[in-house]
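Local shape tokens

___
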Amino acid sequence: MATAGLVDECAQDLLSDRSNLIIDLSAVSFLAAAGLGVLVRADNRTRANRGCLRVVTGHSRAAPRALAITQLDRTLTVHTTPRDAVEAMTRP
């Protein structure tokens, strides 16, 4: 939970002067409700700023599983690699 709070604070700081954000979860081994809440809040902030959030899961098993169970994989834009996420953001 301490990690989720830190990520939430960093995301909030980053989104104070920009509208797009990529969160890389590829090294995450456990994704609980607090972490999922961070993703939802970051997504809401980016949308409010007319931007977008991209979530990178890499080859982690925990992140895609948690996103699928909660059906957040249907509302968040998920990519396997950071490169894919960046490329998707730069497309018109």
